[in-house]
Amino acid sequence: xxxxxxxxxxxxxxxxxxxxxxxxxxxxxxxxxxxxxxxxxxxxxxxxxxxxxxxxxxxxxxxxxxxxxxxxxxxxxxxxxxxxxxxxxxxxxxxxxxxxxxxxxxxxxxxx
Length: 112
Known about the structure:
The protein is mostly helical. It has helices at residues 2-25, 31-55, 59-82, 89-111.
């Protein structure tokens, strides 16, 4: 199940990288990519919570906490985007760094 969560988070990360490219290249974000990124990340979090509840923690716990904090930043970015407000680069960067850190922690937990 950790492998599946990892694959889903990698897909979310690729969609997130696409959003960053679109933001700098076109200054608009395709809503289908925004929603797909959020859906993939949410699915990854659900899978990770299931793994955490089943296996009881360890290195998965830290990855889960970091990814949950990144998700809060993602919700804030989505709220700004839906209000047509401009996204603040430091906030977007913080979301990306937290998500990437969580992904690395998840890979390390997967490797054992």
